[in-house]
């Protein structure tokens, strides 16, 4: 066992050392964070008073108050308590590291009321006042004091323009308007309403909608939100479609609206239409065109246009600038092929641009029928001549056998042409050609003087003679 350990030690030690270092660093970091949390978590505290704003901020006793913690953007209830006789409440042992923010809320008469976000940047002990109001289902005191519409750069591939709206809702009454899914104000659902333009997609909700029920309505969407006296901000985003390089946008006022301001990136052009053009501004380091519209009545609509957008859709692999020279090149190739076909193809013959030529067959493929018979007789004659020239037979036998073969050859040619209905002149020419072929080419010397390859030439000559006679026969019939 000890020997095995000594063998494994050089291999395991570097791995164990690296693992130990990683664990040490992990424990050191997590330990420091845990120590920091342990040290800070117990020092934070939020205390305050619950009051009713409709009744002169009178203290409310015996009401449930909830502490909400927001960690990494996610909200969750952390603790609950009840207000004491003076409306007081207290939450302790809270994280002051900055990783968590808090808010205190209460539900009262069907409405939801909360404090602003609480952190501990100014100290571990924070005091707040949570104000609730008597609730009404009437939205008569509700109006929009300001609506800001922010356009972003177009998504050309999808043909969409992202739009964000920031709506400041003002309640001029002393009671809170609480939206709900029940019927009221002549509507099937008594919701705080927000309009969306035609074709809007990808709705995303932001400030003011946390923990609020949402429902679709004919003009956009509605929220069962609570609007206390004063001003409340709601934010949401969506996409509008566009085609080619332009788009239209219409803002509809669900409530009387004091002012609408639209910010358009300077990469686009703003067509004011129902709006009025204002001087450009810079927001968050980006320049924008500005158009504005004041005093919209409830249900009124104000339209504007956007131009200079990138052409919607995915760019083709080949642009028109690339397609033009490619098309010209293809046209030139087609023209060259057409000329070549006209000069060398059957179309050229049909158009009398090239003569029709019957090629003499020069291949050595086996012949059949009459062609085979003619070739056999010719080769027999040539073999007889070579044998006689070499002294392999007597003159009498040579003359006798040659006369027989020549007669067979003549008869084969004349008989074939006669069967084809050739005129007499063609028959006479064929007989003469058979005599010439049997006796060798004129002026070429005796058969013994010709090379062996002349056998094939003689056979081709006879074949050509036969084809010529065939053509003559065809001419006679025509």
Describe the structure.
Mean pLDDT is 80; it is low at 1-38, 359-363, 440-462 and 464-478. With 478 residues, the protein is α+β, with helices and mostly antiparallel strands. It folds into four domains: 41-132, Immunoglobulin-like, CATH 2.60.40.1120; 142-307, Immunoglobulin-like (Sandwich), CATH 2.60.40; 320-350; 370-477, no CATH class. Helix 5 (395-419) packs antiparallel against helix 6. The strands form six sheets. A seven-stranded mixed beta sheet has the order 14-18-11-10-20-23-22, with no helix packed on it. A hairpin with a 2-residue loop joins strand 6 and strand 7. The protein has seven helices and 24 strands. Helix content is 32%, strand content 33%. It is elongated, with a radius of gyration of 53 Å.
Features:
alpha+beta, Immunoglobulin-like, 4 domains, seven-stranded mixed beta sheet, 24 strands, elongated, disordered N terminus, disordered C terminus
């Amino acid at each position: 066992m000890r020997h095995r350990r000594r063998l494994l030690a050089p291999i395991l030690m570097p791995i164990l050392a690296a693992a130990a270092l990683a664990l040490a660093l992990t424990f050191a970091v997590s330990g420091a964070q845990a120590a920091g949390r342990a040290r800070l978590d117990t020092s934070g505290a939020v205390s305050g008073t619950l009051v009713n704003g409709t009744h002169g901020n009178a203290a409310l006793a015996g009401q449930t108050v909830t502490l909400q913690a927001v960690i990494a953007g996610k909200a969750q209830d952390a603790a609950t308590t009840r207000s004491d006789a003076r409306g007081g409440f207290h939450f302790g042992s809270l994280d002051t590291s900055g990783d968590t923010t808090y808010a205190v809320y209460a539900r009262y008469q069907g409405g939801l009321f909360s404090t602003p976000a609480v952190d501990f940047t100014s100290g571990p002990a924070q005091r707040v006042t949570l104000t609730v109001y008597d609730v009404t289902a009437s939205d008569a005191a509700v109006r929009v004091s300001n609506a800001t519409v922010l356009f972003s750069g177009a998504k050309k591939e999808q043909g969409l323009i992202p739009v964000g709206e920031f709506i400041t809702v003002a309640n001029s009454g002393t009671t809170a308007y609480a939206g709900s899914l029940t019927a009221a104000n002549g509507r099937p659902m008594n919701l705080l309403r927000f309009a969306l333009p035609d074709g809007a997609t990808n709705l995303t909700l932001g400030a003011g909608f946390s923990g609020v029920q949402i429902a679709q309505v004919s003009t956009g969407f509605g929220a069962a939100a609570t609007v206390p006296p004063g001003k409340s901000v709601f934010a949401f985003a969506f996409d509008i479609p566009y085609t080619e390089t332009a788009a239209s946008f219409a803002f509809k006022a669900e409530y009387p609206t004091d002012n609408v301001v639209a910010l358009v990136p300077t990469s686009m052009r703003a067509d004011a239409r129902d709006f009025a053009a204002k001087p450009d501004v810079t927001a968050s380091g980006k320049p924008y065109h500005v158009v504005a519209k004041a005093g919209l009545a409830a249900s009124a609509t104000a339209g504007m246009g956007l131009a200079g957008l990138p052409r919607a859709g995915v760019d083709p692999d080949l642009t028109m600038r690339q397609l033009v020279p490619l098309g010209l090149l293809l046209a030139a190739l087609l023209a060259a092929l057409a000329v070549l076909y006209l000069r060398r193809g059957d179309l050229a013959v049909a158009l009398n641009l090239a003569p029709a030529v019957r090629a003499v067959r020069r291949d050595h493929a086996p012949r059949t029928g009459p062609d085979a018979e003619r070739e056999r007789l010719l080769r027999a004659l040539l073999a007889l001549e070579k044998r006689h020239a070499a002294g392999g037979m007597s003159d009498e036998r040579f003359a006798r056998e040659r006369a027989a073969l020549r007669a067979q050859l003549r008869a084969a040619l004349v008989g074939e042409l006669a069967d084809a209905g050739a005129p007499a002149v063609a028959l006479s020419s064929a007989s003469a050609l058979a005599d010439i072929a049997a006796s060798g080419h004129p002026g070429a010397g005796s058969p013994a003087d010709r090379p062996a390859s002349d056998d094939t030439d003689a056979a081709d000559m006879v074949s050509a003679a036969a084809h010529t006679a065939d053509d003559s026969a065809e001419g006679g019939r025509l």
